[in-house]
From TrEMBL:
Pfam families reported for this sequence: Sushi (PF00084)
Domain Sushi: 253-309, 365-424
Keyword annotations of the record: Disulfide bond, Glycoprotein, Repeat, Signal, Sushi
CDD domains according to UniProt: CCP (cd00033)
Signal sequence, start to end: 1-20
InterPro entries xrefs: Compl-Cell_Adhes-Reg, Sushi/SCR/CCP_sf, Sushi_SCR_CCP_dom
Name of the protein in its database record: Sushi domain-containing protein
Keyword Glycoprotein: yes
Amino acid sequence: MDGILVVSVLMTILHSRVQATLNDTIEFSFTSLTHRNERCISDPFKIVENVGVLHCAKYCLQRSMCQSFGQEGDVCSLFENHSVTDLETNIGSLFSFKSHFEHFFPQNEMYVCGNVTCPIGTICIQTINHNTACVFTECPNIPEVPRNSYLPAIVTREVGKTLLLQCDFRPVGNASITCQADGNWTTPNFNCFDECVAQPTSNSMTNDPMNTNATAIGTIVTYTCNPPKFGNTSIICLGNGTWSQLDEDVCYYECVSPPTSTSMTQNTNSTSVGTEITYTCNLPKFGNTSIICLENGTWSQLDEDVCYYECVSPPTSTSMTQNTNSSSVGTEITYTCNLPKLGNTSIICLENGTWSQLDEDVCYYECVSRPTSTSMTKIASDTNATSVGTEITYTCNLPKFGNTSIICLENGTWSQLDEDVCYYGKNCFDTMSLGGNITSYITIAPCSNSQVEVTCKEEGGLTYTIIPHDLQPDTILNTTTEVTLVYNITQNTIESIISQSRTCRQYVKYRCFNSSIHVNGEDQPTATFYTGGNKRADYFPGGTPSGNNCACGVNGTCNDTSLACNCNSNDEIWRIDDGYVTSKGDLPITKFEFNLVDKISYVTIDSLECEGSV
């Protein structure tokens, strides 16, 4: 619009006048920004930037839904409603109502478009060919909405905008409407039902015949279970136009009248499923039973065979005491012998109503508690038996072996427990054969009143008793040397172990360098061992007794087959002669002697090993 806008602001007056054209003016009021929310029900439905106040006023006039506008700087805000009729006098933004300025714009400026007058809600545009036309910017009329539905709180009417109709009940169809280019709203294909659809049907239930067609919200419909089932439930038409859930699980069966009996009497006549009825036998018989109403509406079987006769009072005894006075057929009564005698017996109430015979001869004396021992253990199978004649076996605790028995005598005392029967195994093989553990140090007794600790080993299916000594492996021998072996048990004990073993052996390894065992073929060796009898041996370990040879000399495997031992080669090479001493009469090795000036050798003698038992 052409024209000059002049705003004259006076702090002491309520209004100012703005020149719109040469002859017309618009009245505005001033208000502060803090008052906008108090003056407008909602936020602006449209904001236009970079426009002046006069154009802002025209934008409001061109829109049917605009009732007031505000101008802040170059920002124009259009409002659909207002909540006050007067404006306060405050310094701030311009604010005015559509009704205050409609008549100040000449008709020919607002609505004339070429040769036509544009209706409200349209604007005049000039085409590229300089023609003019009225085009809709909004749909001026609020659309008519279907029953029970309503528009949202903020309604925009601009062309192309879509509104979504609101429904608090049951919406059906498309709830959106759109402002078209011709200024009309699309017709909604939408319904908002404030009632439920037809009542749900059921094969197992029937709804209330007096209320079969009721569908209004809040309607309550009762459904009754079809025979032969019983029960009922209700549904309600909810506020959203749907029915609450129909619960068909409430239906249940019920039994017919309970069975009758001439020999029994029942305690109730209830017939609901799960009911249990107790029947009691009529006198003179005794007994009772129960039946239950099953889920299929039938009663479980009534068992009249539970009725029974009873015996008279049970017999009494001066030497025994009974545990009950029950007298029904089949009852078993236990009689226990009065102290100091022990024993018990039973009688039973027979089907003919008489008691079986009471046998008082079962009473007997018993020994007191069994003797205990720190070195022996009672066999588990009879540890608690104490009656006269009872025999209890005691087994020696490991690592000892042996067992003995005691007996409960007729006078109620136990025979003597002999703990001296316990003994140690005489060697490792004997201990293993008796069931002992040979994985660590064990105690053996190779002779009377002599217990020693030894180690054991298993090799090649054989069990060996190991007797160690103090000589270190690879003991050095030079010039004239005599080494004595000290064993950890006495010589007599070692000899007992040897004599009670099937075989014994002791391994010797001799490493030599230019140290001949037989110098110049002499029979007197420079290196030899001493036997258990402290005698100088006439052969080297692995050789033949009295043979003055070594193991390789026996087997013909010496590095020089013409020699009796490898070390006899004396050839500036380290040689080894080794082997076992296996003759029990030559064991254990007690010393090893080396006699060769300016020579050096090394000897290793293993522990004595004895296997088996004789």
